[in-house]
């Protein structure tokens, strides 16, 4: 499978459960290399089973795009104007260009809105991924999870090409 075999569309409320399942699966697949198991558990909101309620709330204020292969949602990105809030691809589909396609879609939408710079907060796992996509690290920062758990992340930005006028 390649990124050419997927399509992107706006997320729908009916996608919330599967987006929660992808979020949980992606975090569960991470090794305890950069973060402890306790931190990873807090990152997935102490859930082992999907619960779309938080994602439904987020969908009211964020733009959410999903990646689909056939009829299956395999990943998603959420953003607000110039900030990529979340990017998750189901572990079964990682490494196949899905995340790259979702980030490119976010950057394209920002460019279409006349935005020349985007930002994101990357987990330590994702920092290399974003660097390969042309983002630069701004600074390490704390990220606050539930129950007082604080994890290190990297604030990153990318300058976009301005569209011809």
Write a brief caption for the model.
The chain is of the alpha+beta class and 165 residues long. It has helices at 16-28, 37-43, 53-59, 98-112, 127-132, and strands spanning 7-10, 63-69, 72-80, 83-89, 117-123, 136-144, 150-159.
Describe the protein's architecture and organization.
The chain is an alpha+beta fold. The chain has 5 helices and 7 strands, in the order E-H-H-H-E-E-E-H-E-H-E-E. The chain has helices at residues 16-28, 37-43, 53-59, 98-112, 127-132, and strands spanning 7-10, 63-69, 72-80, 83-89, 117-123, 136-144, 150-159. It has a 7-stranded mixed beta sheet. A hairpin with a 2-residue loop joins strand 3 (72-80) and strand 4. The longest helix has 15 residues, at 98-112. The chain starts with 6 loop residues before the first strand and ends in a 6-residue tail after the last strand. The relative contact order is 0.16.
Secondary-structure class: alpha+beta
The strands making up the biggest β-sheet line up spatially as 1-2-3-4-5-7-6
Mean pLDDT: 91
**Separation of the first and last Cα atoms:** 36 Å
| Large-scale geometry | globular
What are the SSEs and their pairings?
Blueprint: E1 7-10, H1 16-28, H2 37-43, H3 53-59, E2 63-69, E3 72-80, E4 83-89, H4 98-112, E5 117-123, H5 127-132, E6 136-144, E7 150-159
Parallel strand pairs: 4-5
Antiparallel strand pairs: 1-2, 2-3, 3-4, 5-7, 6-7
Helix pairs in contact: 1-3
Please tag this protein with its features.
globular; 165 residues; alpha+beta; single chain
């Amino acid at each position: 499978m390649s990124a050419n075999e997927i399509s992107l569309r706006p997320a729908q409320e009916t996608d919330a459960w599967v987006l929660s399942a992808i979020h949980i699966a992606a975090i569960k697949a991470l090794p305890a290399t950069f973060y402890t198991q306790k931190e990873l558990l807090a990152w997935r909101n102490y859930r082992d089973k999907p619960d779309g309620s938080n994602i439904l709330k987020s969908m009211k204020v964020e733009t959410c795009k999903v990646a689909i292969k056939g009829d299956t949602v395999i990943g998603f990105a959420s953003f607000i104007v110039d900030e990529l809030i979340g990017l998750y691809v189901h572990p079964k589909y990682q490494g196949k260009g899905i995340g790259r396609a979702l980030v490119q879609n976010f950057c394209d939408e920002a460019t279409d809105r006349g935005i020349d710079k985007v930002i994101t907060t990357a987990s330590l796992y994702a920092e290399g991924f974003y660097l390969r996509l042309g983002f630069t690290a701004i600074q390490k920062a704390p990220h606050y999870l539930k129950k007082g758990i604080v994890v290190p992340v990297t604030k990153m930005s990318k300058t976009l090409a301005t569209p011809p006028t």
